[in-house]
Amino acid sequence: MREKLLNHFIGAVDNRDEYQQHEIYKELAFSGILLWYLSMLLMFVSLILDTIHNQFSLMTLLLFIINMVYATLIMTRLRKRQLDETDCASIEEYRDKRKRIKKSSILAGIQWGLFMFFIMQYLFPYLSTGEIVVNWVQTVIWGIGGILYGTLLYQISKSKLKKHF
Amino acid sequence: MKQKFTQIELAKKVGVARQTVNLIENDKYNPSLSLCISLSRVLKTDLNALFWEE
Which ipTM was obtained for this model? Predict the structure, then answer.
């Protein structure tokens, strides 16, 4: 079934051999990643347009649903086949990888917090009403949001480290 | 016993594309173990003689 779909998709008459399949999968995977980013960008642009017109369009909703379903599907399938796990042969290796995860999670938390703070406090209010009102409460809320996001990311990434010692 | 095949003949016998045989010959693709075994069977040789570099 999968082979038939693949042949139909690339327009091949007969089955591909192992090298060709490998290369086709690589190209399709890369195209899929590009399509995902493009779709996320479109969703963001659609959200900005909605904010300017003070509405929530069906287009934004559909793009959001498609992106979420796509991401969930890929994550679930990767996890099911244990393709996202990282093996650690020693305690030193485990500690080193955990340290790297912690560092990247802190960075991701800060980035998320700053991005959300900027779009929710500056960009969307400006596009919607033209007024920007920033207060400490909202700053603290996005700060806590960033910490929670970073912590969640750290916990998820840490759960993918498998101890073999 | 040495076997003489063109790339297309060998490709047909092991069930891959000629391009794949060409890439293997030029060290640009590492074939799977099952393909290595098929190649050695068709060429009537062993894996060492076929792939091992001194």
Answer: 0.83
